[in-house]
């Protein structure tokens, strides 16, 4: 199981600031979050960024996640 | 260690300052900007814009304009296909050409293509639009009130709590700990309200494009943009085209700063070309650029910070309200993430609220959302230091985020460079230089994420051994120079043997927009990988020539060499020699890389500025300015310094002069550079850049983005300097002379 920290608005929707899901990759994580916490789906559909052990990822579904990884969901980053 | 991780090494070309490859073209006028392209039979486009901030469009009569000789097409929203677009795409279409309502002064309501520019504008005068003027709101705080005019109904997402105006479209929250408990441990708690005005990116080149749609559904678009693939994909979707049928070429770009990461009028030019069957050139006037292309958000912020007598922050909270203009999509969430990012805080909580107003759709402006957040946070930290008689740099060092700090937005930091920038500032002679009467010294820190994204690069070894490098990101910050340098470094050949060009969308795989300070990181990574790919091919060709296994070949100083004594005795085979026999050894040689680069390193900066306030007039003179920023690795230090200086200069304008001024009817009053005053050379001292290099572990050369962080600290640094010089805390930007004079008089 991987512990996933959620930002405040998502935490309200999921009912907890941190949830656990079964996942070994970023793609698996997103699938598991959508399945186990359907209230998060609208935000997941709009796009998010994910910090895995301090590095921020946007799209790479095959990015590996270890059980002890620090995983934090973030609003989808944009820039100028 | 994977080869795309950072590896310490000595460089021959990276880190030097060669002459920029685009310089001659730009100073001689050869470079082709958006308005420089023409085509046979070309028409001129022009756009009719709403004079009202909020109005229902009751009718549009184009008959008189259509009857004018030389007018080849008149379009309104009715001419665009009615497609099932997602809300974001529908907003882009609606912003390009208004539907039922005009949502801001300057919103496009109709457009014309005619045989001359003057005729096109005359035809605009012949179009009759009947409006029903509606109540409007341009202020972010007023727009949040329950009785505010609603720009769009039912656009709130699920994060917005009940009871807020429908103009509030999204809410984000970050933080950890228990701020209320933390405030109890403080010796002093300061809570302040801050506002910043909407400011335009102020790029010198107005938006321009040339659209050519054929009867066969294929088209070409030459456009000034920060992302021609984004333009292709968005225009294709809005107009119901297949992306592969539309080829988009990016012009040279006279500044963007985030303002050209969006679609503004390109679908209009394409639709005019479709309807007329002719090429159509559309060049916005400066007035249109101000009125209809997004400035950054104005903001309203509440900050509360508690601190002990010895300078330890015990807790911090912030609420950031950013107006997004007439559509959802501001970056208050980035304010909420970035504001306290420089500090190691046990208790922190932030909230970001996105608010619609009757203004042009807000656009990114270098590190969107971060400068206004840093302004408010760093102002309160400075005031705490003043009231507790603490050294502002030492206090920031005491609270600085470091490797292992849990950031205010959640993740734990890897190696970062904030502490290094603060120590460099402490050691710089600027910090101890004497100050005169009415002068103040301000410091402030800033943070930006940086990111990577989809990137494609081709590196072709030509028959004579020179190298042609193709990238797909418009060069707004020296990417052709830095990519050429990284390719030459990796290949081990002289820099003048590499030429880099920006490819069109039909010639190279997808490339994300030039934004997020991503290009030197992501395209640089792809360039290095493409060069390594080409090297592997060249090693194979040399092995074939020598009759040995490719694994027995190394690449040293631009040539293939036997890997060791067991590989055989052969003289080095240069890239030119390998290229000369390419046809005999398998054909053309090219390396390429298509990847979605992840792992960009975050960036920090500390700025220091001296100003002098004239207490009689309220005028501010910037006396001295020094930027300390972590670049990871500066590929071409001149460009990096230019980014530091440019960000500081734009931040100075944002702090002191620049603002959108509306009349009581919501019309923009200062849509031109005479009345919207950006800093000019005579307003600025020489801005001294100090480059620090704390390598990004996620890039082979250690590169971090540098283009955005430099605009984050200046608002606060100037405000802190002016507040100290004037002897009164300023909490509203811009700090224009009347505002400062009034504050000084009020004491």
TrEMBL record, chain A:
InterPro entries: Beta-grasp_dom_sf, Mopterin_synth/thiamin_S_b, ThiS/MoaD-like
Pfam families: ThiS
Coiled-coil ranges per UniProt: none
Record's protein name: MoaD/ThiS family protein
Originating organism: Rhodalgimonas zhirmunskyi
From TrEMBL, chain B:
Stretch list, region Disordered: 157-177
GO molecular function: iron ion binding; oxidoreductase activity
Limits of the Aldehyde oxidase/xanthine dehydrogenase a/b hammerhead domain: 28-135
Keywords carried by this UniProt record: Molybdenum, Oxidoreductase
Pfam families in alphabetical order: Ald_Xan_dh_C, MoCoBD_1, MoCoBD_2
SMART domains membership: Ald_Xan_dh_C (SM01008)
Entry-linked InterPro entries: Ald_Oxase/Xan_DH_a/b, Ald_Oxase/Xan_DH_a/b_sf, Ald_Oxase/xanthine_DH-like, AldOxase/xan_DH_MoCoBD1, AldOxase/xan_DH_MoCoBD2, AldOxase/xan_DH_Mopterin-bd_sf
Domain of life: Bacteria
PANTHER family: ALDEHYDE OXIDASE 1-RELATED, XANTHINE DEHYDROGENASE
Protein name, UniProt field: Xanthine dehydrogenase family protein molybdopterin-binding subunit
Annotated source species: Rhodalgimonas zhirmunskyi
Lineage of the species this protein comes from: Bacteria, Pseudomonadati, Pseudomonadota, Alphaproteobacteria, Rhodobacterales
């Amino acid at each position: 199981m991987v512990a996933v920290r959620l930002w405040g608005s998502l935490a309200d929707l999921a009912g907890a600031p941190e949830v656990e899901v079964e996942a070994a990759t970023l793609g698996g994580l997103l699938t598991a979050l959508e399945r186990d916490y359907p209230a998060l789906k609208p935000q997941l559909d709009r796009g998010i960024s994910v910090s895995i052990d301090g590095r921020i990822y946007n799209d790479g579904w095959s990015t590996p996640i270890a059980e002890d990884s620090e995983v934090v969901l973030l609003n989808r980053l944009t820039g100028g | 260690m994977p080869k795309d991780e950072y590896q310490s090494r000595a460089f021959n070309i990276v880190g030097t300052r060669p002459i920029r490859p685009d310089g001659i073209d730009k100073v001689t006028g050869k470079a082709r900007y958006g308005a420089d392209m023409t085509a046979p039979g070309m028409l001129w486009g022009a756009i009719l814009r709403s004079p009202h901030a909020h109005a229902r469009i009751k009718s549009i009569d184009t008959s008189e304009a259509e009857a004018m000789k030389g007018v080849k097409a008149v379009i309104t929203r009715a001419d665009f296909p009615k497609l099932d677009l997602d809300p974001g795409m529908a907003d882009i279409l609606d912003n390009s050409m208004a539907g039922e309502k005009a949502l801001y002064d300057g919103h496009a309501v109709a457009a014309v293509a005619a045989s001359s520019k003057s005729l096109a504008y005359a035809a605009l005068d012949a179009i009759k639009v009947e409006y029903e003027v509606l109540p409007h709101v341009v202020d972010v705080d007023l727009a949040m009130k329950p009785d505010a005019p609603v720009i769009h109904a039912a656009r709130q997402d699920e994060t917005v709590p009940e009871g807020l105006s429908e103009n509030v479209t999204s809410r984000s929250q970050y933080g950890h700990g228990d701020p209320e408990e933390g405030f109890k441990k403080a010796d002093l708690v300061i809570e302040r309200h801050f506002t910043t005005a909407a400011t335009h990116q102020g790029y010198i080149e107005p938006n321009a494009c040339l659209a050519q749609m054929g009867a066969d559904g294929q088209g070409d678009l030459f456009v000034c943009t920060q992302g021609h693939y984004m333009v292709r994909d968005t225009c294709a979707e809005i107009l119901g085209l297949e992306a592969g049928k539309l080829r988009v070429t990016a012009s040279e770009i006279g500044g963007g700063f985030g303002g050209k990461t969006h679609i503004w009028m390109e679908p209009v030019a394409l639709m005019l070309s479709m309807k007329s069957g002719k090429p159509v050139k559309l060049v916005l006037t400066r007035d249109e650029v101000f009125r209809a292309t997004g400035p950054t958000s104005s903001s309203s912020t509440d900050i509360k910070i508690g601190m002990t007598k010895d300078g330890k922050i015990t807790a911090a909270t912030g609420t950031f309200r950013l107006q997004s203009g007439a559509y959802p999509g501001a970056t208050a969430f980035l304010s909420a993430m970035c504001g306290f990012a420089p500090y190691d805080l046990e208790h922190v909580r932030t909230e970001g609220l996105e608010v619609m107003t009757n203004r042009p759709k807000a656009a990114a402006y270098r590190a969107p959302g971060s400068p206004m957040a840093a302004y408010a946070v760093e102002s309160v930290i400075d005031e705490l230091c003043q009231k507790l008689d603490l050294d502002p740099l030492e206090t920031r060092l005491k609270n600085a985020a470091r490797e292992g700090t849990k950031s205010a937005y959640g993740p734990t930091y890897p190696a970062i460079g904030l502490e290094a920038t603060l120590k460099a500032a402490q050691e710089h002679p600027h910090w101890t230089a004497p100050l005169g009467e009415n002068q103040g010294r301000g410091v402030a820190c800033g943070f930006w994420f940086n990111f990577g994204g989809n990137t494609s690069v081709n590196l072709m070894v030509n028959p004579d051994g020179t190298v042609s490098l193709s990238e797909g990101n418009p060069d707004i910050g020296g990417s052709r120079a830095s990519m050429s340098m990284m390719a030459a470094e990796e290949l081990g050949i002289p820099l003048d043997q590499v030429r880099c060009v920006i490819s069109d969308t039909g010639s190279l795989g997808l490339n994300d927009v030039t934004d997020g300070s991503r290009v030197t990181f992501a395209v640089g990574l792809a360039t290095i990988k493409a060069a390594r790919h080409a090297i592997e091919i060249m090693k194979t060709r040399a092995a074939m020539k020598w009759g040995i296994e490719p694994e027995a070949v190394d690449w040293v100083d631009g040539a293939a060499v036997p890997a060791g004594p067991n590989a055989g005795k052969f003289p080095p085979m240069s890239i030119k020699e390998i290229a000369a026999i390419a046809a005999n050894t398998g054909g053309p040689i090219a390396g390429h890389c298509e990847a979605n680069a992840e792992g960009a390193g975050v960036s920090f900066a500390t700025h220091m500025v001296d100003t002098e306030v004239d207490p009689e007039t309220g005028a501010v003179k910037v006396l001295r300015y020094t930027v300390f920023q972590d670049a990871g690795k500066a590929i071409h230090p001149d460009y990096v310094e230019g980014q530091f200086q440019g960000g500081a200069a734009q931040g100075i304008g944002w702090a002191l002069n620049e603002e959108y001024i509306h009349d009581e009817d919501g019309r923009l009053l200062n849509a031109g550079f005479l009345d919207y005053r950006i800093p000019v050379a005579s307003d600025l001292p020489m801005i001294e850049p100090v480059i620090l290099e704390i390598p990004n572990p996620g890039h082979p050369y250690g590169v971090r983005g540098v283009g955005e962080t430099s605009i984050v600290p200046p608002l606060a640094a100037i405000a802190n300097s002016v507040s100290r010089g004037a002897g009164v805390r300023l909490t509203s930007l811009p700090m224009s002379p009347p505002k400062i004079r009034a504050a000084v008089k009020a004491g």
